[in-house]
Design brief:
The N and C termini lie far apart (83 Å). The chain has a domain at 24-55. A hairpin with a 2-residue loop joins β3 and β4 (51-52). The chain has 65 residues and is an alpha+beta fold. 12% of the residues lie in helices and 12% in strands. The protein has one helix spanning 9-16, and strands spanning 27-28, 35-36, 47-48, 51-52. It has a two-stranded antiparallel sheet. The radius of gyration is 24 Å and the shape is elongated. The chain contains 1 helix and 4 strands; from the N terminus they run αββββ.
């Protein structure tokens, strides 16, 4: 039975560097200026690439009782 080979410090660190947490890159919506994920429809106004994709939801008011 053979013993496992020892890895150098730099090789061990190279394996570890891919495990770190990455920051989320946000872009701004060209229509409303809200922060959003890149290449996604804006959740606030529903625009993508200058075109309306999803019409914004309109809240219904309650009828007076």
């Amino acid at each position: 039975m053979t013993t496992p080979k020892r890895h150098s410090n730099s090789r061990t660190n190279m394996k570890r560097k891919s495990k770190k947490l990455h920051t989320i890159d946000l872009s701004t919506c060209s229509n409303c200026g809200e922060a959003k994920l890149p290449h996604r429809i804006c959740p606030k106004c529903g625009y993508y690439n200058g075109k309306l994709v999803i019409p914004p939801k309109v809240k219904k008011e309650k009828a007076p009782a």
